[in-house]
């Protein structure tokens, strides 16, 4: 069958693909511990679910404006002002079918064929493919583990002139890095010298910061960038609402209007009763978010301690999100059951086969030699995963 050539430029999401493989094994009776998917294991808070039920009972099942319910847009604008110090109004906000679609709409609205989209590596798996789908050129910018996998101003300076978009993500997937205000300000100084470059600021992991780290907004620190930047956020991570598919974008009104037009021809609008529930998420108790942050920090520490006992593996301490990104290249060349480990992809496959543990190889994020582990699993499951990895390590030969 002949399909569109644009499909040649992309691949299925590696994180979802690994999760699908884990589910197939589970269906066959294998007790797989899935550390591959970026999804909180907590359930959506009851108050949010109850708000959705009330909305359904009240007949809130019709179309909304393409940009979203006015009252939700107002609530998002209020949150952005109160929490993030960003002076957006409802007209600057678009409610989308997940934060992923918000990024895609922004790229569609901003990029012409051949435009350069700057993406620091490691990067979330969909950034580069989404840029390719809008016929832009993804330009991968290197980072270093010794810098916390954060983009350095001098690297940005070398690439930013003539670029159309920089995608910046903090807290960061897959590494858990969190940019300091000083680091963001330094990047902002470089961006100030490149007036043609827009910023897509992906802040979906906003509440998940640890050890005194602060989740700061580049656009609050450098308000002059607000006229050429779009903030991306949503409800999936903070409120354990991944399946609800609800995100938002905030930016200059002309850009938001263009993205709204695109959405009107794609998804029409985000699900109506989910939007009603999102108002409760923003305006109701935040205790569930605070509990999840504390729980994730404890799990991070448990998993870190266990991984650091495994020879040939090293892992920095992340200050945000809910991932570890251990370096596994020290295992390359070692043998497990007659198979010489040569890549992170192969190691991930062997861990699934030999330890019934699903992870994601660093190559999925543009960086070989690492694995991404999600600690969005119970303490008991994480401890079991470490036991299985210990047994796997004991079978390895030099």
Full CATH superfamily name of the largest domain: Type I PLP-dependent aspartate aminotransferase-like (Major domain)
How many domains make up the 3D coordinates?
Answer: 2
Q: Alpha-carbon distance between the termini?
A: 47 Å
CATH fold name of the largest domain, please? Aspartate Aminotransferase, domain 2
Q: Can you count the beta strands?
A: 15
| Number of separate helices | 13
Q: What general form does the structure show?
A: globular
**Helix content bin:** 40-55%
Q: Which class do the helix and strand fractions yield?
A: alpha/beta
Strand content: 5-15%
User: H/E element string?
Assistant: HEHHEHEHEHEHEHEEHHHEEEHEEEHE
| Physical arrangement of strands within the biggest beta sheet | 2-8-7-6-5-3-4
CATH class identity of the largest domain: Alpha Beta
> What number is the mean pLDDT?
96
**Rg computed from alpha carbons, rounded to a whole number of angstroms:** 21 Å
Write the CATH architecture name of the largest domain.
Answer: 3-Layer(aba) Sandwich
Low-confidence stretches: none
The biggest sheet, with number of strands, parallel, antiparallel or mixed sense and barrel status, is: 7 strands, mixed
């Amino acid at each position: 069958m002949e399909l569109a050539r644009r499909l040649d430029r992309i691949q299925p999401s590696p994180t979802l693909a690994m999760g699908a493989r884990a589910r197939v094994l589970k269906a066959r009776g294998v007790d797989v511990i899935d550390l591959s998917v970026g999804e909180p294991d907590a359930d959506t808070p009851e108050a949010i679910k109850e708000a959705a039920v009330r909305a359904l009972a009240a007949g809130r099942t019709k179309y909304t404006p393409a940009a979203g319910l006015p009252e939700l847009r107002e609530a998002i604008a209020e949150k952005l002002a109160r929490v993030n110090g960003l002076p957006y109004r409802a007209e600057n906000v678009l409610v989308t079918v997940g934060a992923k679609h918000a990024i895609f709409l922004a790229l569609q609205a901003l990029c012409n064929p051949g435009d350069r989209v700057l993406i620091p590596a490691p990067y979330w798996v969909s950034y580069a493919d989404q840029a390719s789908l809008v016929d832009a050129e993804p330009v991968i910018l290197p980072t270093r583990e010794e810098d916390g996998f954060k983009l350095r101003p001098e690297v940005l300076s070398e690439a930013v002139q003539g670029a159309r978009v920089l995608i910046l993500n903090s807290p960061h997937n897959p590494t858990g890095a969190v940019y300091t205000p000083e680091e963001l300000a330094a990047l902002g100084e470089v961006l100030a010298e490149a007036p043609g470059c827009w910023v897509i600021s992906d802040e979906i992991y906003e509440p998940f910061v640890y050890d005194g780290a602060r989740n700061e907004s580049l656009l609050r620190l450098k308000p002059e960038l607000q006229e050429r930047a779009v903030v991306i956020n949503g409800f999936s991570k903070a409120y354990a609402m991944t399946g609800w598919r609800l995100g938002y974008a905030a930016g200059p009104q002309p850009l938001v209007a263009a993205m709204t037009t695109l959405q009107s021809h794609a998804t029409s609008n985000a699900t109506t009763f989910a939007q009603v529930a999102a108002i409760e998420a923003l305006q109701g108790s935040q205790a569930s978010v605070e509990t999840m942050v504390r729980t994730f920090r404890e799990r991070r520490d448990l998993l870190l301690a266990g991984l650091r006992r495994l020879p040939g593996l090293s892992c920095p301490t992340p200050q945000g999100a809910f991932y570890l990104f251990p370096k596994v290249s020290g295992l390359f060349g070692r043998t497990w059951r007659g198979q010489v480990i040569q890549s992170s992809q192969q190691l991930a496959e062997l861990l699934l086969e030999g330890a019934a543990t699903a992870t994601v190889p660093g190559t999925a994020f543009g960086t070989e030699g690492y694995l991404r582990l999600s600690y969005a699993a119970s303490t008991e499951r994480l401890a079991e995963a470490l036991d299985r990895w210990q047994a796997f390590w004991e079978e390895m030969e030099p």
